[in-house]
Amino acid sequence: MDRFRSGLAELSADKGFVFEDGQDGLSNWHIGSNANKSQIIRFHTIDPSVHAIENQLYLVGHSTVLVSPHSGALGLSLFLPPGYGHVIELQVPATVGWHHYDIMATEMGMRYDMIPVQRTVDIERVWGKVKEAVEQAL
Predict the structure, then answer these.
(1) What's the CA dihedral at 114, 2, 79, 115 to 10 degrees?
(2) Which of 37, 61, 84, 101 gets the highest tally of CB atoms within 10 A of its CB?
(3) 3 state SS of 21
């Protein structure tokens, strides 16, 4: 998560956008621009065992990119903005061939990428996909 935070902060600075980290609070989390009319790049982590379902739906519904390992939490991708969202799924070998999240994303007009992972996750590879997805959304 630290790599995503630092990368998004750097990307925001490079592009002249505002970076908002959900750890700092969500009171102004909404789609659109801030009062200064600057574009905003926001980041938040969701722990389904901690965050109420209403908060999960709100966060995903106001997101563009959703990154998750293959799990039920990817079902939240149904609440990404249709035709605009991007799902990045991390898949271990045991789940290869399970294409339901790919199909869901495609049917809703969203982009979908799958990154195969083994025992460890190549953080730079995942960051590269996230950065690409964010840049395409800007």
Answers:
(1) 0
(2) 101
(3) strand
